[in-house]
Amino acid sequence: MSTNSQPLLEVKGLSKTYTQRRAISHEKYSVRAFDDIDLEVPEGATIAIIGESGAGKSALARCLALLEPTDRGEIWYGGRDVTQPNSHDLSVRREIQFVFQDATTALNPRFTAAEIISEPLLIRGIGTKTDRRERALHLMQQVGLRPECSEKKSLEFSGGQRQRVAIARALALQPKLLILDEIFSSLDLVNQQVILDLLAELQEAFALTFVHICHDLRLVAQFADEVAVMAGGKIVEMKPASGLFSGAQHPATRDLLAALPSVESILLERFA
User: Fold this and answer.
1) What does pTM read for this prediction?
2) What top-level class would CATH report for the domain 7-105+176-271?
3) What are phi and psi of 15, to 5 degrees?
4) What are phi and psi of 181, to 5 degrees?
5) Over the range 181-193, which residues count as b (16 or more CB within 10 Å of their CB) and which as e?
6) What CA–CA distance (Å, rounded) separates 191 from 216?
7) CB of 97 within 8 A of CB of 166?
8) pLDDT in tens for each of the 272 residues of the chain?
């Protein structure tokens, strides 16, 4: 995907901690999710954020999507600092959308697919009921779901189909930036590739910018333009995806690469 040199999203010195209580004493203590993050996401690019469990990837993603406040630092979107008070206007929140890891829990089981996809439009007061339904049906077709599935509820769909519904819902408000949190992790290999191909088509059709949280380096190699490696709540390495496998510098990156199974080890494990 061709990119614009101007960053759509720019992060400067971003930090986040959570306050928790101990189970017995109820004493408060702080847990650092991430610290002093700098990141640029060019318009039209696909950025992958990788790292071991607990590195702070998902917490960073939620803050980038303005779903959670940060402790300090700046998030610049479209040339303005959206971490400033009263800066989260409707246009910014419409333009940055989040796709959750588990579509099963992210979708209301009482709603039909058409209701799920059109709900953001209803919340924003956009269009008539007929307009919203037509938009939902159009988006279902865009993500490869038949219109006759519009009255099905989320639990009637397969895992891959639920993820398509979640992506369609995220597109309802015509965003520019999608932040996708481990959306491949609950899918089998076939559905991973199908969703990967779908996202490439949607990126072209809607001129989207993607930030992927992903732990599967084999997938990252297929879709990412650049890769940010997180360890201990910090970005420790960032480089083009094309150079990740041959030029990793940081030990955390090398550990992730070393954990990748070879074809031979997969066959031995499967058929031993």
Assistant:
1) 0.87
2) alpha beta
3) -140, 150
4) -100, 95
5) bbbbebbeeebbe
6) 14
7) no
8) 445 557 999 999 999 999 888 888 878 888 899 999 999 999 999 999 998 888 899 999 999 999 999 999 999 998 888 887 665 566 788 999 999 988 888 999 999 999 999 999 999 999 999 999 999 999 999 999 999 999 999 999 999 999 999 999 999 999 999 999 999 988 888 999 999 999 999 999 999 999 999 888 888 888 999 999 999 999 999 988 887 777 667 788 778 877 766 544 433 443 34
